[in-house]
Structure formats: structure tokens, C-alpha cells
Design brief:
This protein is an alpha/beta fold and 356 residues long. The protein contains eleven helices and twelve strands. The chain has one domain: Aldolase class I (TIM Barrel, Alpha-Beta Barrel), CATH 3.20.20.70. Helix 3 links the parallel strand 3 and strand 4. The longest helix has 21 residues. Bound molecules: S-adenosylmethionine and iron/sulfur cluster (2 copies).
């Protein structure tokens, strides 16, 4: 058992392990061009069989192990997490976990918002700390081009309204693809600024192997900030903590927005995030090609012991493995992007599989 004063774990570059992103499912009802382009994720695409997905019991077991090792924030993501049934029940149980400081674990959810409206009341009751909703455009045609489907952005906006009315804390993510939705920056900023909801502009990233990433489609955050400054006047606030992904800015008339600049201004040096895929593999970077199979340890360990002993032994095993993996972590892909030359055998994991 790791002693409290050695927590949280630190990797070989002295980075803490405080955040765990849990992908609940690799499937999604959208086909965003930057994540699951429909040409690749078509009707023949082989998603994970249901039996390979971690059950809620397994997710709780693994979350408990991570929290024992110093994790303080859990983010549920996917694919589209709201496609899994009974998410509020899972959140309710995860919220019972206590950090090594004795606080409640923070539990957040990232969703495309399509199914949000029907769940806001149960999500609020579950104790969810925040919901982040992805929305890339207000204009219907541009929205459809971004999500690769025929839905209306009004459905997502209704989900956002319902979440706000329910008293949930809300943020909105917008991936900016130059030449596709960059003309939505001002309308989106204006819409959310006047409603006092924080909108975060995300640079289009080269995650996975399918999204045809090209640097010419990246609009650096600096350009976004210049645009917003000309229109509204802005001033920099910065990061709340060093490991936050977003830099925060104030509009001069009130309200805030964020910029997530993993291409133009990488933030690997304070990266405190581990990721658990929906089939139970641990990844230490969004751009990894290798994961560590934790599910194997919890499904296959077969001791002739009582349930309690068995659970205790599995937890020790899993915690040791997590500790070993994090100890040796060296990832800093975004800082090395321009010089990184992958071997042919190295295929990055897909964003929809590992979760954003
Ligand atoms: N389906 C949910 C959603 O869209 O919010 C959760 C999973 S999605 C993979 C998580 C986040 O990753 C979303 O905010 C999405 O916009 C972001 N994302 C996906 N692909 C991206 C890319 N290539 N570059 C930047 N952000 C990306
Ligand atoms: Fe689905 Fe989210 Fe990926 Fe879009 S970004 S395809 S909504 S998982
Ligand atoms: Fe963290 Fe990897 Fe992203 Fe760098 S590239 S910030 S190490 S997830």
C-alpha cells in the first residue's frame, strides 16, 4: 500500500497522477470529421464487443485503485458516454470515493449533448460536479459538416439549457477546424458569453490515424484570442492550476472563455492525466500506441480465497501495476510532434476509443 505522504504518484518527469479519464464506450451517434470520420467508422467498423467493455463494477473497482494512488478527478467520456445505460447510478457510486486528502472525488462528464436533456435531472441528483458539452457551430450546415450527421445544433443547445436549468455546472468545448468552422468563433463566443457559460476553443489535434490531420487546418489559439479581442476586448487570467489544460481569459464586458492549445503551446510538462479505455487498458498519453491491460488482472486473477481476500489481492496487484506504469512514464508527444517519427508498427489509439 502506498503511504499517504507519497501521494499522488509521480512519473519519471516528476508529473503527478491526479486525473483519470474513463472511456465508457467506443461507440458514438456522431461521426465528427476530426474524431470518427464516417468514411472510416462506417457500418462495417468493428467496435468492441459488449462483453469486452468494463462493467460498472469493474470501473468502480479500478477507479477506487486510482483514487487510492492519489487521483482526485474522474472524467467520464467516450465515444459517447450517454449511450451507456444508467450512467447516473455509476456517478452516484463514484462520488462516494474519498481522495487521500479526505475530500470527495470530483466526477465530471464530457458528452456531445445529444441525449443530455433527458438525463439532466438524474445527473444532478447523482452528484455530478460538471458536464462539458461539445458543440462546434451554431450554424446548422456547419454543425452537420463537423459532426458528420444530419442533426440540428438546437438539440445540443436544448441539452445545455436543460443542464443549466437543473443547476448543473456547464462548460462547452468547440474544436476549431480552420476552413470549416472558424467563422463560428464569434457567434459561438457571443452566444455563450451572454449566457455566462464558459466556452473553450480547442485546437484541432492529430489524434488517432483516421482524421486526415493537417497543420493547415489548425487555427492557433493566439489567432482565436486576437479575433475575440478585436470584437469584445479580452484579458488573460491564466491557468487555475498548472495541470489545467485550458488557459482562461476574461471578456471585458464580463464572462470568461478558455483556450486549449495542445498543438501551438503544448502542456505536457504538467500533464497529470491517465486514461482508461472502455475495455480496461491504461494509457498514459492521448497519443499512445500501447496500453496496459488492467482488465486482465481483475478478470483473470483466480485465487482460491474468499471474495474479500480475492478483491484485496486484485487491488494490490492492480495498484502495483498502475504504480509501475506511472513511475516509468515519459510521454510528451505534443512537445515532440514536429520531430516525432513513428515506426510503421506504431498506430496511435483513436480518440473515440480512449476518450478526450
Ligand atoms: N462524445 C463526447 C464529446 O464529443 O464530447 C466525448 C468524447 S470526445 C472524444 C471528447 C472531446 O474530444 C470532445 O470535446 C471533442 O470535441 C474532442 N476531440 C475529439 N477529437 C478531437 C481532435 N481531433 N482534436 C481536438 N479535440 C478533439
Ligand atoms: Fe463522437 Fe465525441 Fe468523437 Fe464527436 S468527438 S465523434 S461526438 S466521440
Ligand atoms: Fe499529456 Fe500526452 Fe497530451 Fe502531452 S501529449 S499533454 S503527455 S496526453
Amino acid at each position: 500500500m502506498t503511504k499517504k505522504n507519497n501521494l499522488p504518484l509521480r512519473d519519471s518527469c516528476d508529473r503527478k497522477l491526479t486525473d483519470l479519464r474513463i472511456s465508457l464506450i467506443d461507440q458514438c451517434n456522431f461521426r465528427c470529421s476530426y474524431c470518427m470520420p464516417k468514411e472510416i467508422f462506417g457500418k462495417d467498423y468493428q467496435f468492441l464487443p459488449k462483453k469486452e467493455l468494463l462493467s460498472f463494477e469493474e470501473i468502480k473497482f479500478l477507479s477506487n485503485a486510482f483514487v487510492n494512488l492519489g487521483v482526485e478527478k474522474l472524467r467520464l467520456t467516450g465515444g459517447e458516454p450517454l449511450l451507456r445505460k444508467n450512467i447516473p447510478e455509476l456517478i452516484y457510486d463514484l462520488k462516494k470515493l474519498k481522495t487521500f486528502r479526505g475530500d470527495n472525488v470530483e466526477v465530471t462528464l464530457t458528452t456531445n449533448g445529444f441525449l443530455l436533456q433527458q438525463f439532466t435531472s438524474s445527473l444532478k441528483k447523482s452528484g455530478l460536479d460538471r458536464v462539458t458539452i461539445s458543440l462546434d457551430a451554431l450554424d446548422e450546415n456547419i454543425f452537420q459538416e463537423m459532426i458528420g450527421g444530419k442533426y440540428s445544433p438546437k438539440i445540443v443547445l436544448s441539452g445545455i439549457n436543460a443542464a443549466i436549468n437543473e443547476g448543473l455546472s456547464v462548460k462547452v468545448n468547440m474544436v476549431v477546424k480552420k476552413g470549416v468552422n472558424h467563422n463560428q468563433i464569434i457567434p459561438m463566443a457571443d452566444y455563450f458569453r451572454t449566457r455566462n457559460i464558459q466556452l473553450r476553443f480547442i485546437e484541432f489535434m492529430d489524434v488517432g490515424n483516421s482524421n486526415q490531420w493537417d497543420a493547415k487546418h489548425v487555427l492557433p489559439s493566439e489567432e482565436v484570442v486576437k479575433l475575440l479581442n478585436r470584437k469584445f476586448g479580452v484579458s488573460k487570467v491564466g491557468r487555475k492550476t498548472a495541470s489545467e489544460v485550458a488557459e482562461v481569459w476574461n471578456y471585458s464586458g464580463g464572462g470568461t472563455f478558455g483556450t486549449i492549445s495542445s498543438v501551438s503551446k503544448p502542456f505536457c510538462k504538467n500533464c497529470s492525466r491517465a486514461r482508461l479505455s472502455s475495455d480496461g487498458l491504461l494509457y498514459t498519453c492521448l497519443f499512445s500506441s500501447v496500453g496496459y491491460d488492467l482488465k486482465k488482472y481483475i478478470r483473470e486473477a483466480n485465487f482460491a480465497q474468499s471474495d474479500e481476500e480475492l478483491a484485496g489481492n486484485k487491488r494490490v496487484l492492480v495498484e502495483k501495476l498502475i504504480q509501475r506504469v506511472w513511475d516509468s512514464r515519459k510521454d510528451r508527444y505534443s512537445e515532440q510532434r514536429l520531430t516525432y517519427k513513428p515506426k510503421i508498427s506504431e498506430r496511435k489509439i483513436e480518440m473515440s476509443y480512449i476518450g478526450g
